[in-house]
User: Fold L-ribulose-5-phosphate 4-epimerase from Rheinheimera riviphila.
Amino acid sequence: MSYTELKREVFEANLELQKRGLVIYTFGNVSQIDRAKGVIAIKPSGVAYENMSADDMVIVDLENQIVEGTVRQVMRPSSDTKTHTHLYRHFADIGGVTHTHSTYATAWAQAKLPIPCLGTTHADFVYGAVPCTAEMSNEQVQRDYEEETGVQIVRCFAELDPNAAPMVVVAGHAPFTWGKDAAKSVYHAVILEEIARMAYLTRTLAPQGDVLARAVMDKHYFRKHGKNAYYGQTK
Amino acid sequence: MSYTELKREVFEANLELQKRGLVIYTFGNVSQIDRAKGVIAIKPSGVAYENMSADDMVIVDLENQIVEGTVRQVMRPSSDTKTHTHLYRHFADIGGVTHTHSTYATAWAQAKLPIPCLGTTHADFVYGAVPCTAEMSNEQVQRDYEEETGVQIVRCFAELDPNAAPMVVVAGHAPFTWGKDAAKSVYHAVILEEIARMAYLTRTLAPQGDVLARAVMDKHYFRKHGKNAYYGQTK
Amino acid sequence: MSYTELKREVFEANLELQKRGLVIYTFGNVSQIDRAKGVIAIKPSGVAYENMSADDMVIVDLENQIVEGTVRQVMRPSSDTKTHTHLYRHFADIGGVTHTHSTYATAWAQAKLPIPCLGTTHADFVYGAVPCTAEMSNEQVQRDYEEETGVQIVRCFAELDPNAAPMVVVAGHAPFTWGKDAAKSVYHAVILEEIARMAYLTRTLAPQGDVLARAVMDKHYFRKHGKNAYYGQTK
Amino acid sequence: MSYTELKREVFEANLELQKRGLVIYTFGNVSQIDRAKGVIAIKPSGVAYENMSADDMVIVDLENQIVEGTVRQVMRPSSDTKTHTHLYRHFADIGGVTHTHSTYATAWAQAKLPIPCLGTTHADFVYGAVPCTAEMSNEQVQRDYEEETGVQIVRCFAELDPNAAPMVVVAGHAPFTWGKDAAKSVYHAVILEEIARMAYLTRTLAPQGDVLARAVMDKHYFRKHGKNAYYGQTK
Assistant:
């Protein structure tokens, strides 16, 4: 895939964030990787969606160095770039990463709570709870904050499969989601916001309610994922 | 009614789900029955609303077998088809069925609680609480999940009239609604979401509040339903 | 004012309900009185906003008798007509009445609670709490329900000035608002919904919070109302 | 800057309030100062956004005297003008002020609570809690209410930097925000509403949750503000 195509896909995925109501102003950022070339394209830092063009996406390698892709003046990449590259380096299967401060998912992050699996809407997309990272130590914050945000996320998946729960809430911060490409990571960001909203309503309505039974959770997850899936059209 | 007409009505009812904000992406499905022909038309599985045409609706009989209605490649019907056909087989008067994961109704489903009749908005459409099914046993889940979802709903109406409460929330899952045709079942899905939202707000504001007095409930329900109704224009 | 003009104003006020998001489907109704002629125009019963024309508004006298205003087939007036005429007969200064089931105001009605004055947004429009009627007795419900709804509202204002609190929530039901004409009664319905929403959020955030201090309440109310008002432009 | 330019900027900032959904009807007002000339432009009192033109903005000096800027009939300035001028006189660095009754920020004001810093969305814009003023004494209310609203706000910042927390909620009332110009003060009003909404959700979900760790708060605030900031593009 050419840099031009990669930037176009990342640009469109970033615009989708705005269209779906997940971000205001310059909030949020989406990236996509080209593993063959060892580079990602990512939204530039602090640029309004209205003024952005596909050409403004920044190409960086996995050590966060800017790779000049165009003759035009290169912009500074998202301040969260190191979190994105950390995830690409550690989660081998993912191709796109999205970060938002979407309202309900952020409320769970601020409450420092994982989002329990309370129903089939959740089970259709995530196997088990949406994990919440541990809080960062002061030392981590001061060392290399954005890199360490990635470290906290990866630690959180030490015994979890990032493909089975393609999303996380970072304690005190906000969500990150991922998928096979930029578009799919945005899709997961939209799903997460809806799951988070339903879970908020369920918990405030019935604080002591049980999580979804394991058998139903398995049923819903595996009718959409894996070799026995039967949801959707055959390819 | 021809297959073409049946598909057209079902297609439009499905689009209405999206216009009314009850679904995102491929969530939700609506069907309608032609009892003379013994078939239903239903939304195809996992197809985006934007890409769908009336011709993509799938015709299946009441044993869930696809009846080829067009020369075009037939799509796989909604994965919830067996729940729809189960309801048509057991609720003799209904002509349309809608399934959504609308946010507030799903919160009640996830809380595994019936929606109490707290006011006249509710009483105008549903006589008594909106029932919540019992949870499925593990055995049911493994046997034939979508069929058993229908079984749970029908059981829930053993002593209730499905015409007087044309809606249900399935515990841990989401709502199903029905009516004389596809359009009316969507109408009930919209009403349910509004009733569910009002009941959520009422319960979180005043957790100990009483349900609506029986006399008012009767008054509102019967001024709109049955032979003494006086709401609306004479036909 | 001719019947045609009266119907036009009432028609437009009814459409405003929909534009402001206070109603779905055929919910809600607005009327306006011509006190010289002793008649009101009111929305017909159960007609969709999309299909309604100004000519469909129904002219009835204060004893709820239809006065034929046009050659066209007269429609049945709103099923809540008797509540409207009851209010016009007892509240001498009002010229328009609106009834909705707007979500937050209805939640307070369903909780059977008056809406306390918690801030200046409220005090700008309503002096003191928005009252909540007592529940109706079974006998009232069976006698003449819509008339008795008016009776409950009027009773609620035995020691209150309907001009200083141009709105009420009817216990277990929903709000009624009024004003000098139909448009102003709709304006008050919009304000009430916003006040009700703010009060819901305030109470669920801080259940034990105090109401607004009397001095601030007086200040805000009287800077907008009465002979010493200084808000807005001089007429 | 000419009066015409100043009015144009203030007019556009006021319209932005409506576009962003922070106000209904005539709610809200924005002003901007020209410190060289010692005047501000501010929205006229009680005029609907639909009927307003740039020319209707009112020019007043810092003692609240109207300075006739145009040949057209001068309108009465916002009834909150004295609060605006009080803030300009005491906060030397600010160039624009916005007042709204946006829903969630107003709920915190009505609860008479500061908005705690619960996450990085907040820390990106405000250093520490969004303060809540003390309630006004009855004497203050009666003396000169709008001026005293300014007094309460300035007192609240006796030991706080108004540049580090460019916003406040006035107890029992609603928010005021400020910035280097009118547009930036509106930007802060939008941010405040989102922060207030997230904090409401977080507190109702987990009432006992901790505030954000100091190290993370410092990190987020200072990566966007001050001489070591690295968010956004270099100027």
